[in-house]
Amino acid sequence: MPGAAPIFIIWKKSWVYRELPVSVFNRCGVLAMYDDYLLLKITTKREKAETVETALLELGALSCTLQDAVDTPIHEPAPGQAPLWPDVEITGMFPDTADSTLLSHLMERQLAGGDISAMSSKKLQGQEWERVWMDDFAPLQISDNLWVVPSFCEAPDPQAVNLMIDPGLAFGSGTHATTTLCLRWLAKQDLSGKVVLDYGCGSGILAVAAACMGAAKVYTYDIDPQALTATVENAERNNVVEQIVVCKKDTEVIGKVDLLVANILLRPLLDLTGRFAQLLGDDGRLGLSGVLSEQVELLANAYSGEFQHCETSMLDQWVLYSAKKQGKNLSA
Fold first, then answer.
1. Distances, alpha carbon 197 to alpha carbons 25, 221, 231, in Å
2. Which of 30, 104, 150, 241 has a 20 to 30 A CA-CA distance from 202?
3. Are residues 250 and 171 in the same domain?
4. What's 295's DSSP letter?
5. Sheet with strand 244-247: strands edge to edge
6. Are residues 297 and 321 in the same domain?
7. Is 197 exposed, middle or buried (0-12, 13-18, 19+ CB in 10 A)?
8. What's the pLDDT at 225?
9. 155 in helix, strand or coil?
10. pLDDT digits (tens, 9 = 90+) for 186-215
11. What interhelical angle do 49-58 and 100-110 show, nearest 10?
């Protein structure tokens, strides 16, 4: 990336947002430097995205938004990674005083090697830019009594469990199918007084949900420090910080847990079979997601030794696999 300015990235269901230092942001994470903007939108291939983004920034773009151009599904990114889609739509945001015709001409000259598939421009009012960012996030109903609500929105059902979660640096704002599946699974469990472990906690949304729904203690673990920071912030926002225990290592979990939820990826789930058996008490419940429908057989085979399959739920092409540790009472 050009320049020495820090890069601010927000992961969303369908885009990555990179811009200037956080000091120039208002509360919602958007630029507040100009009243109006010019947006120059370019479609290109993944391997050309960095070249296009660099060219836009060199021409004076205040920020660049990278968005999926074709609606291609992408796996949950591993910690520290930001994979792109095969076809990427990159939007450079310029002050409204910029000349769109000149910018388009300069981009075509600078990227003469066929890096641009399509290009367009439009004006955008400053207030609209903030609204565009907010409008992409609305309250999301997970089950009859569970909602995910951005802090800048009003809860549609004040009597329900409302998780106040804002989009941020860590994965997990409730919009991804795997997060929804895990939240639905938690909503069906008897969490009252239970000890829960959110393994690979991301934003901490699953841990916060468990605490809000009655869990006495919720351990959270993630290898990404940003995830642990986001978890603490979301726990504070939802007034459950006293129930949340943030762990830098999974060995910090004390005793056995009653429920374990892990929304990660297939490979680590396969590797963690034995570790999850150690962490769960007898008849402890397990909810695993981050797995595609064609991968669930591999997962089921890996967990068949020490766990009894309970149910498999599907949303879009994603799956949640639920099982119970084979303790002394299999009929419970």
1. 34, 8, 13
2. 30
3. yes
4. G
5. 244-247, 217-221, 195-199, 257-263, 280-292, 318-325, 307-315
6. yes
7. buried
8. 87
9. coil
10. 999 999 999 999 999 988 999 999 999 999
11. 130
Mean pLDDT, the chain, rounded, equals 80
- From 135, 152, 167, the end of a domain falls on 135
Look up residue 26 and give its two tokens: 């208002």
State how far the Cα of 163 lies from the Cα of 205, in Å rounded to an integer: 8
Token pair of 78 as six digits: 């591993």
Per the structure, the complete domain to which residue 95 belongs is given by 8-135
pLDDT computed for residue 284 by the predictor? 95
Taking the chain, what is the end-to-end CA distance rounded to the nearest angstrom? Answer: 56
* Residue 8: band (very low, low, confident or very high) from pLDDT cuts 50, 70, 90: very low
DSSP letter string over 207-254?
A: HHHHHHTT-SEEEEE-S-HHHHHHHHHHHHHTT-GGGEEEESSGGG--
For 139-161, the pLDDT digits (tens) are 888 888 999 888 778 888 888 89
For residues 177-195, b (16+ Cβ closer than 10 Å) or e, as one string?
A: bbbbbbbbbbbebebeebb
Among 81, 104, 135, where does a domain finish? 135
Contacts of 118 (CB under 8 A, 6+ apart): 42, 43
Question: In sequence order, which residues have a C-beta less than 8 Å from that of residue 96 and are 6 or more positions away?
Answer: 34, 35, 36, 37, 38, 123
How far are the Cα atoms of 3, 30, 88, 126 from residue 61, in angstroms, in the given order?
12, 14, 17, 15
pLDDT at 82 over 70: no
Q: Which two tokens stand for residue 114?
A: 């066929």
Q: Is residue 308 part of a domain?
A: yes
Query: pLDDT tens across 257-288, in order?
Result: 999 999 998 999 999 999 999 999 999 999 99
Return left, alpha or beta for 26; rule: phi > 0 is left, psi -120 to 50 is alpha, else beta: beta
pLDDT given for residue 123 in this prediction: 84
Burial class for 249, CB neighbours closer than 10 Å (0-12, 13-18, 19+): exposed
Helices 205-212, 225-237: inter-axial angle, 10-degree rounding: 30
Exposure letters 264-302 (e unless 16+ CB within 10 A, then b) = bbbeebeebeeebbebbeebbbbbbbbbbeebbeebbeb
- pTM score, two decimals? 0.65
